[in-house]
Design brief:
With 254 residues, this protein is an alpha+beta fold. It folds into two domains: 65 residues, Winged helix-like DNA-binding domain superfamily/Winged helix DNA-binding domain (Arc Repressor Mutant, subunit A, Orthogonal Bundle), CATH 1.10.10.10; 170 residues, GAF domain (Beta-Lactamase, 2-Layer Sandwich). 43% of the residues lie in helices and 18% in strands. The strands form two sheets. Strands 5-4-3-8-7-6 form a six-stranded antiparallel sheet, sandwiched between helices. It has a two-stranded antiparallel sheet with strand order 1-2. Helix 1 crosses helix 3. It is globular, with a radius of gyration of 20 Å. The two termini are 38 Å apart. The model has no long low-confidence stretch (mean pLDDT 89).
Length: 254
């Protein structure tokens, strides 16, 4: 959970509620009231009152068997009410489904979100062997082709600021990353080995809005299967074509 060291304004009750939401977002099976209290160094009474309000508002639900509290999908629903996310996913989802059908590869849609990448759309391949990125996942900026593709089209000043806010990995150099971003912009896409899964090759392309900004990235984490009928080059071309269609739906050009 991200907290300001010296906040200008303080709203303790709001902070407690947000702390609970952020904590529960990290636990798939939820937490009990006492576990939440211990994790946040709060009293059980404080946590109980906050949980009751969050439950009444629909943000959390209590499992009647385990008594654990879990986040509901309400937070996800609110996120999709944000105009850019709603428009983006509405334009992209049917085209992503068609892309997975044609390529037999999974695909995900991501946007820049603070100091990382947020996956706002994800479609699995129709085959039996699936590699996918979880919808709603927040990925570190420097471990995602999606982020690099979007950053390649940002103004240099914005990239420099991101590098200050999110330091590059110790085994990388800022100058090297800048050169790679320039290459991505020159070619219009990135093809590289996955940062996190061996044997997977990322193919990532930008999505442009009506103002010509790279508002998102569409990525295939490509896996090679024995007997594949669709070549890697076919997948790359299909991804580029799909990104172009989504961009046009948003009023952008490709």
């Amino acid at each position: 959970m991200t907290k300001k060291v010296n906040p200008t304004y303080s709203a303790p009750a709001l902070e407690k509620g947000l702390d609970i939401i952020e904590l529960l977002s990290q636990h798939d099976i939820g937490l009990t009231q006492s576990e939440i209290a211990r994790a946040l160094n709060r009293s059980v009474g404080e946590i109980f009152r906050m949980l009751m309000v969050l439950q009444e508002r629909g943000y959390v639900a209590q499992d009647p068997v385990s008594d654990r509290y879990l986040l509901t999908t309400f937070v996800f629903e609110i996120a999709h009410r944000i105009p850019i996310v709603g428009r983006l996913t509405a334009a992209a989802e049917p085209k992503m489904r068609e892309l997975t059908r044609v390529t037999n590869q999974s695909v995900h849609l991501a946007i820049l979100s603070g100091d990382g990448i947020l996956v706002v759309g994800q479609t699995n391949s129709p085959g039996n062997n699936v590699l996918s990125v979880r919808l709603g996942a927040k990925i570190e900026l420097w471990e995602a082709s999606s982020g690099r593709v979007i950053m390649a089209y940002l103004p240099k000043a914005d990239v420099a600021q991101l590098m200050k806010d999110v330091p590059v990995p110790s085994d990388s150099k800022a100058s090297q990353i800048i050169a790679e971003l320039e290459q991505i912009k020159a070619t219009g896409l990135e093809v590289r080995d996955s940062f996190v899964v061996r044997g997977v090759v990322n193919i990532s392309v930008p999505i442009f809005d009506h103002a010509g900004h790279a508002t998102a990235a569409l990525t295939i984490p490509h896996i090679e299967r024995f007997g594949d009928q669709v070549t890697f080059e076919d997948c790359k071309n299909a991804l580029v074509e799909t990104a172009g269609k989504i961009s046009k739906s948003l009023g952008g050009s490709y």
